[in-house]
User: What shape does this take?
Amino acid sequence: QVQLVESGGGLVQAGGSLRLSCAASGRTFSNYIMGWFRQAPGKEREFVAAISWSGWSTYYTDSVKGRFTISRDNAKNTVYLQMNSLKPEDTAVYYCAAEPTRPIPIWTMTSSKDFGSWGQGTQVTVSS
Assistant: This one.
């Protein structure tokens, strides 16, 4: 099991940028597939992005492609989500998640049920 703590959320105007961080502790971080999810009030938790244990593969939901970038620094036990050109519809609580590496493509891991470890979340609010 790995423990996750998100940070970097806040209030930003439409068109602005934020960089979220997720610090991990516990079992070996580099052996985990990492993901970002978000949940807006009254809506289901939705997939945002995922990255393989090596960082070689990334996958994004269509609504954030070209605007968000997921990355990881295994030496620092940290995964990042760089969010550019933010829109009001990006407003949500953002969660990072982890799952031990499996021999499957990361693009198949788009459900919250695919990940076993979760952080507490960080609020992102985008004003118009």
